[in-house]
């Protein structure tokens, strides 16, 4: 019995000590949508993608940028009265039947554009924020350029098909990341329903979200996703189905974009598959940051404003699959010699990967570090390297685990050896006594 137990323990230890990594490849063959990507909402790192830089028609996911820009410029509690231009929406498209001269709150418009995807609400937000549709479209494209959305150009605030109205899955993820940073945006992006009170021209209107994933399976939504935190859908005959979904499992916050899904359910199936893959196969790894230069001159026009001393994080967290390691990632500070006060965001950390992977995107990305502007010089050695105190990276674990396995293996071998010695000594004594009996 003892030998069987020992043998079983040995087998278990042997299995545990064999380090075999099972790589799960990105499920590209299972995706129905034409283009797609998943982004880390915290850093902007693209985790996986399929033709994510291909220019596509966005349909109503355009309204993510519309609502974010409007929310930055308007008080949700303020009242708005529909202008003739804002009330000239396509009556065959999704709308809430607002008419010229009708008054409601900006909050009603935000819920209407995000939850119901009403085009009249989107046009009203554009009018309220910029004074005209043309001025707002100009604002949209300025923001796209500022965000680095090089594959995008918007021609309207609604997402209706129009010449030169296009984006990419990657750019939509960038737009959503920006929108999530706008105070209050998540209130409308995550909403399930809203009621617009009776106005001077209409009775009360109640509507609910069409995005099944954000409702959640616990509420019997057919395609509910329990980690989903918000989302926006789009559809036109030209764009087909588009969807943006955010999800948080407590460890990662992700943005999933799928474009040109062939049917209404494909966008949910694809989004669920992509989010599940990322949640199951990525882990957060701490990467040290090397700082070569940390001080620059900050100008306000032609006048020197002061010195900007950059304090980038000594380490950042990057999401990696099991086939990638810390040694495959490089983080460098991109600090110019000088910049305008309005351009301090140009100070960035560049993250690059030294090898490619079948399981994740390795295209690299940038992060804006923490910084502090001072009026006097704070000279820090240009060659100094900053190290993070109290790093959470536990390098000794990678040594301790194998040593622990080996130690356990040695202990069991010694137990078996002691058992065999004891057994052999007992056998010798038994034989000795038998011989003594024969001698008598």
Quick gist of this model?
The chain is an alpha+beta fold and 440 residues long. It is built from ten helices and 18 strands. The radius of gyration is 30 Å and the shape is globular.
Write up this protein.
The chain is an alpha+beta fold and 440 residues long. The chain has 3 domains: 2-19 and 402-439; 31-281, Beta-lactamase (3-Layer(aba) Sandwich); 284-374, no CATH class. Helix content is 33%, strand content 23%. The protein has 10 helices and 18 strands. The chain has helices at residues 2-17, 63-73, 106-116, 119-130, 133-147, 169-181, 185-189, 212-215, 266-281, 397-439; strands at residues 35-40, 46-50, 79-81, 103-105, 193-196, 205-208, 228-236, 240-248, 253-261, 283-288, 295-300, 303-310, 315-320, 329-334, 338-340, 348-353, 365-367, 371-374. Strands 2-1-9-8-7 form a 5-stranded antiparallel β-sheet, sandwiched between helices. Strands 15-11-12-18 form a 4-stranded mixed β-sheet, with no helix packed on it. Strands 14-16-17 form a 3-stranded antiparallel β-sheet, with no helix packed on it. A hairpin with an 8-residue loop joins strand 5 and strand 6 (205-208). Helix 2 (63-73) packs parallel to helix 6, helix 3 (106-116) packs across helix 4 (119-130) and helix 4 crosses helix 5 (133-147). It is globular and about 110 Å long. The chain starts with a helix and ends with a helix. The model is unreliable at 1-6, 8-22 and 376-392 (pLDDT under 50).
Question: Which key features would you list for this structure?
Answer:
single chain, 440 residues, alpha+beta, Beta-lactamase, 5-stranded antiparallel sheet, 4-stranded mixed sheet, 10 helices, 18 strands, globular
């Amino acid at each position: 019995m003892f030998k069987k137990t020992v043998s079983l323990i040995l087998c278990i230890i042997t299995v545990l000590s064999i380090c075999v990594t099972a790589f799960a490849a990105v499920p590209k063959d299972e995706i129905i949508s034409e283009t797609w990507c998943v982004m880390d909402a915290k850093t902007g790192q693209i985790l996986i993608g399929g033709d994510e830089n291909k220019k596509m028609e966005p349909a109503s996911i355009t309204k993510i940028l519309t609502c974010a820009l409007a929310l930055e410029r308007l008080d949700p509690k303020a009242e708005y009265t529909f202008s003739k231009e804002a009330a000239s929406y396509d009556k065959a498209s999704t709308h809430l039947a607002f008419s010229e001269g009708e008054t409601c709150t900006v909050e009603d418009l935000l819920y209407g554009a995000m939850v119901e995807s009403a085009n009249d609400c989107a046009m009203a937000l554009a009018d309220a924020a910029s004074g005209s549709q043309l001025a707002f479209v100009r604002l949209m494209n300025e923001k796209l350029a500022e965000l680095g959305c090089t594959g995008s150009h918007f021609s309207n605030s609604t997402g209706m098909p129009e010449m030169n109205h296009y984006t990419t899955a990657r750019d939509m993820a960038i737009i959503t990341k920006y929108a999530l940073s706008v105070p209050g945006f998540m209130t409308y992006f995550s909403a399930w329903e809203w009621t617009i009170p009776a106005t001077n021209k209409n009775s009360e209107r109640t509507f609910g979200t069409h995005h099944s994933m954000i409702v959640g399976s616990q509420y019997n939504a057919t395609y509910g996703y329990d980690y989903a935190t918000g989302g926006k859908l789009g559809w036109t005959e030209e764009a087909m189905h588009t969807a943006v979904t955010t999800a948080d499992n407590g460890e990662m916050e992700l943005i999933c974009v799928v474009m040109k899904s062939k049917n209404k359910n494909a966008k949910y199936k694809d989004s669920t598959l992509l989010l599940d893959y990322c949640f199951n196969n990525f882990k957060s790894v701490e990467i040290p940051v090397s700082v070569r230069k940390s001080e620059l001159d900050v100008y306000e026009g032609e006048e020197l404003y002061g010195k900007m001393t950059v304090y980038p994080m000594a380490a950042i967290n990057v999401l990696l699959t099991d086939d990638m390691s810390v040694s495959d990632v490089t983080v460098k500070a991109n600090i110019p010699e000088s910049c305008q006060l309005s351009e301090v965001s140009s100070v960035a950390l560049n993250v690059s990967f030294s090898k490619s992977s079948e399981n994740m995107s390795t295209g690299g990305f940038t992060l804006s570090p923490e910084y502090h502007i001072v009026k006097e010089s704070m000279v820090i050695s240009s060659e100094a390297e900053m190290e993070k105190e109290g790093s959470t990276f536990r390098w000794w674990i990678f040594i301790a685990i194998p040593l622990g396995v080996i130690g356990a293996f040695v202990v069991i071998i010694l137990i078996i050896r002691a058992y065999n010695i004891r057994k052999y000594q007992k056998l010798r004594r038994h034989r000795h006594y038998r011989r003594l009996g024969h001698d008598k």
